Amino acid sequence: MTGRPKTGDELFELVKSDLAFAKETYGVDIIAVCTDDGPDGKKMRRLIKEQMPWLAAFECWAHQSSLITGNYLSIKAPWMAAAKLAIEVIKWFNHHGTALDLLRAQQRLSFDRILALILPVITRWVSQYCSLRRLKKLERAIRACVITHEERLRVCAGRKDEQIEAAEHIIGIVKDDTFWKNIERIASDLEPLAIASNLLQAPTCRLDTVLMCLGNLHRIFSQNDDTTVKSTVTKSLERRWAKTDQELMILAVFLNPYIRWRAFNHSKLPSMSLYHMILRAYQRFYSRDATTDIELMETFQSYLDGLDHFSDIAMWLNGFKTMYETSKQPVDITAIWKRMDTGPELTGRGGFVKLAIRILSIVPNSAGPERIFSAYGITHTKHRNRLNPQKVHKSTVVRMDCMESHRAAGLVPQRRARHFSLADDQAAMAAMDADSVSPALDGGHSAGPSAANANDMDFGVVTDLLINLAAGEDAEDAAAAADTSITTNTPSSHTSSSASIIDPVLRLPSYKKIKLADLFKYPEPGAPAEELEFFWKGGVNGLDEEESSHEEEIQDSRSENEGTEVNTV
C-alpha cells in the first residue's frame, strides 16, 4: 500500500488481486474477507456485496467489541470517575517501595498469598478490567494496610508537603467506601465485555461465536439495574447487529449442532425462514437453484429435528465435546461437519454438509494478521532495519512455525488455572491457605518506577481512545448509509443472474432483518442460559490467561530489579 491511495476502491482492487494470487499460486479459493470498519473497509465490503456476492465480507468483530466498550465508557456518570482514581492508587503503591512492602506484608496476614497490583497498558484495553478486578480482589488487604500503617504511609514517599499531600490523597481514596462500591460496579459491567472481547479476538472465533456473544451481552445488559447503562449498551449491540450479514450469522448458529434451532425465538424465526436462508445461501455461494431439491429439504428437516444421520449420537456430539474439553480446547464444529461429508456432490445431504462447512469456516476477525504484524516488529527492529519485507515475512513464518511445533510438543509451559469473575475471586480469597504463597513475589523487594511498562497509561487515556473510536465509527456509519442509498437500487450482475436461475413461481422471499432483542428466547433473570452461554466459558478462560500474562510480566520485571532497588522511608 506504500504510495497508493488508501480508498475503498483501491482496497477492492487489492482484494481481487489477492484472490487471483491465492487461486493461481496455492489453488485456494477464498470464501470470505474481513477488514476493520474504517471508511475504506466499509466501501470495499459494499463493492464486494455488489460485484462478488459469493464472497462473504465481514467487519472485524474484535474491533467491534472494542467499540461497544467505547460506547459504555462514554456514559457520563459520577461513578465512572472511580476508575481513574483506581489507577492512581495502583501507581502510588507500585512506585513506592515501602508502601508496597507494607501491602505485601498485609497480604500475608490476610490471605497467606501475595498478589501484584496490575498496571494496565494501552495496547490491551482488557488489561483495564484486569487491573480494576485485581484491585477489588485486594480491597481487604489494602484497607487494612492503610488503617494499620497510616502514619508510615503518609511519609513513605518523602517529607515534602506535596509528597505528603499526595499520600494523604491516596489514603483518603482507600478509606472511601463509595470508591470501592463504584470499582465493583465498573468491574461488573466491564466483565462481560471483556469476556466477549477475548472470544471475538480469538483465532477460533466463528460467525456463531459472534452472534451468541451478542445475544448473551444483550441478555446481561438488558437486566442491568442502571437504565443508562442498559440503554447505551443494548443500542450499541443493536446498531452493530443491524449492519452485519445477519443471514450468515443466523445460519452459523443454526448449523452448530449443539445449539441448532433451540436458542431462537420461533415466533420471529420459524423453521421455514431458516429453510429459505439455506436456499438463498445456495444461490449466493454456488449459483444453484435448490428449490426443487427434495433431498435437501428432507436433510434440513432431519437436522432440525436431530434425527437419522444428524442425531446427537450419530454426530457423536458428546464424544467430540469430551475430547476437546480434555485437551482444554473449544470444540471445532467444522471438524464434526467434515466427518459428515459424503463426497463432491452439491445436492441433498452432501450439499447441506458442504454449506455448513463453508459458513462455519469463516473467521470474522482480523486478529490473526494483526498478530503477524506484531511479530514483524520483533523481527524488523531498529538494529535490523535494512531487512526487506520478504525477508521479514520469511523470518516471521519460520519463527511462528517453530513456536507452533514447540506448543505441539508440549514444550510451552501451561499457565496456572485462575479464577476470573468477581464472585469467583471472593470464593478463592476465602479459600486461600499457606500452600498458595507465590514464591516469585515473596522476596521483600520493592517494584520501583522501573517496574512500570513504558506503555502504561491512565484509565482516562484508554477510555478517551475507545470513546473517540466509537464516536468516529458512528459518524462514518451515517455517511456510509447516505452513500449506500445511491447505489443499493442497482442490482449486481451476479445477483441478477442468480435470481434468473429460479422459476418465478418458486421465487424466494427476501430476508427481513430481525432485531437482536427479538431473535433469541431470552430466559428470565436468574434462570440458566445454556445456549447463549455456549462459548462463554472459553472467554473466561481466555481472560484467565490475560491476567496471568500481566502477572508474569510483573514477576519478570521484579526479578530484573532484585538487588538494585533500595527501600526508602
Automatic annotation (TrEMBL):
Domain of life of the native organism: Eukaryota
UniProt-listed Pfam families: Dimer_Tnp_hAT
Biased composition (Basic and acidic residues): 551-561
Residues covered by region (Disordered): 540-569
Name assigned to this protein: HAT C-terminal dimerisation domain-containing protein
Matches recorded under InterPro entries: HATC_C_dom, RNaseH-like_sf
Ranges where the HAT C-terminal dimerisation domain occurs: 354-397
GO molecular function, one term: protein dimerization activity
